[in-house]
Amino acid sequence: MSDSDPAPSLYAPREPIFPRRVSGLFRTLKWYILAGTLGIYYITPWLRWDRGPALPDQAVLLDLANRRFYFFWIEIWPHEFYFVAGLLIMAGLGLFLFTSALGRVWCGYACPQTVWTDLFILVERWIEGDRNARLRLHRQTTMDFRKARLRITKWVSWLLIGLATGGAWVFYFADAPTLLQDLIAGNAHPVAYTTMAILTGTTFLFGGFAREQICIYACPWPRIQAAMVDEDTLTVGYREWRGEPRGKTRQTDEPGLVHGDCIDCMACANVCPMGIDIRDGQQLECITCALCIDACDDVMERLGKPRGLIDYMALSDEMNERSGQPPKNIWRHVLRPRTTMYTVLWGGVGLALLFALFIRSDIELTVAPVRNPTFVTLSDGAIRNTYDVRLRNKTGEPRLFELSIKGGRDMELNLEGVDGTIVTVPADTSFLQRVYISAPKSAATAAARSTPVRIWVADIGNGERAHKDTSFNGRGSDK
Ligand code: SF4
Ligand code: SF4
Asked: Residue 244: its pLDDT value, please?
């Protein structure tokens, strides 16, 4: 390149992609997954779950105001966030597991960007027609009435889907029927309108216009997944040794050389939502949606040739097939040390979470000793320590909790503002109670620098108990 040549542009404008309609096994599977995932997303906030009069009856609710996460019969409190962390770890391990076994199967089938883009393309096809009609409309430079009508209909449909998407999202954070009424009446919190507006806009732009650009440029997963696949990972590939040299006729220009099975019909490239040609080999853009397999299998069937010119296969199979050996059984690709390790880790975290879920109690307490001062000496010489005890009633009704102590002899327990040792804790509440423990001047605990003490709380109604250990500070000498 000479100095006078203009610098090459670092920007490549997007070439719009108009995937052709395709049918087949993987397309059908993708339709089911699309219907299932979108159905779960849109319907879940409307499911009800009776937890009693004091608690919300929405089955899945992220109650940020009260710092609770409700999932059917499970209620997660802020101090139990490890459950959420555990679920995130499981999601990550599940992603590693599926990627190492089946490549970018998450990207191709279940990623929200893929699912919504698929939905947007479906709507686009209903309104503007299949690939050729959409291409003609795109290349038409004049905006006549028909083009304007089709474009406006499509954009309004996309916007409505975006609005439903943003709307469904905010329903996860408040009682859905009440919030819907408030939204319509204009009484909802501005945060709800802002969130909906942002999600409507991003869904409209990402699903309608950015599409594959998000996967190629914005998402880090294509880069990360490279570390998780190996020569035994099943991914979509082209049997080049069977398809090449490609051509529409049987005989090539070279005498004695016949074309392979690929008739160069471009069906595989025309259905690809990423706009690539799988015959060029593995590419970062490929999300392994397998639509090219459906397209090519259809062509092969019509030609009376075996299916599988494009297929799910591993690099090791490719090498075997090239050398005339049969491919491995699919289970030998799926059940490998790497996938077994991910499965064991995934199951281990899941079992630990289940165990933690089933052993957790409906009552809990935390004890914070007040250490300023560490103790006070009363007028009769007794020593008194102060503690802030936080009592948690995780049930849907008020409970009577009795506090008691086990520690040094002659210790006495008193509750601030309460006669006796029983307090009423409202339903689903964390209740702070100041507690005094005192030991008479003559007691050993008053003289010792520190004496272990156990504070117990018992539910009067059902006898359930919980405790926390702390210490009682004395004078430190017997003066
Ligand atoms: S669909 Fe099959 S036959 Fe047609 S171009 Fe692609 S690989 Fe070749
Ligand atoms: S090349 Fe095939 S599997 Fe890859 S994104 Fe395109 S259609 Fe999907």
From this structure: 87
User: How far apart are alpha carbons 212 and 122 in whole angstroms?
Assistant: 15
Q: What is the reported pLDDT for 4?
A: 65
Residue 176: closest CA among 352, 58, 309, 23: 58
pTM to 2 decimal places: 0.84
* Cα 277 to averaged position of ligand 2 atoms, centre (Å): 8
Q: Across the chain, which distance is largest between two alpha carbons, in Å? A: 116
Type of residue numbered 94: G
Span 370-402, pLDDT tens digits: 988 999 999 999 999 999 999 999 888 889 999
- Report whether residue 457 contacts ligand 1, using a CB cutoff of 6 Å: no
Handedness of CA 254, 258, 261, 266 (dihedral sign): positive
Averaged pLDDT, 303-321 = 90
Tokens of 206: 């990402």
Nearest ligand to the C-alpha atom of residue 109: 2
Q: Is 22 in the pocket of ligand 1 (CB under 6 A)?
A: no
CA of 14 from ligand 2 middle (Å) equals 18
